[in-house]
Amino acid sequence: MIRKHSATLHGHRTSFSLEDEFWAELKTIAAARSMPLAALISEIDDHRPPDSNLSSALRLHVLSWLQAGGDRQP
């Protein structure tokens, strides 16, 4: 199921929609990297192309992480 989530990135509130499975994987990635989930989301946001949206960037990050074996940063 797709759910709306909210985060504060660089002092600005934003929202994004993600399937539960992607949300769970983001939490796993943050835990594996020993960082808060909010910090991971902020990092992904900082490195996404200007013409992409945050939801897509988060999904692509999860995909890259899993393709890389799920044990290191893509």
TrEMBL record:
<dbReference type="GO" id="GO:0016740">
    <property type="term" value="F:transferase activity"/>
</dbReference>
<dbReference type="Pfam" id="PF13467">
    <property type="entry name" value="RHH_4"/>
</dbReference>
<feature type="domain" description="Ribbon-helix-helix">
    <location>
        <begin position="3"/>
        <end position="66"/>
    </location>
</feature>
<dbReference type="InterPro" id="IPR038268">
    <property type="entry name" value="RHH_sf"/>
</dbReference>
<keyword id="KW-0808">Transferase</keyword>
<protein>
    <submittedName>
        <fullName>Aryl-sulfate sulfotransferase</fullName>
    </submittedName>
</protein>
<dbReference type="InterPro" id="IPR027373">
    <property type="entry name" value="RHH_dom"/>
</dbReference>
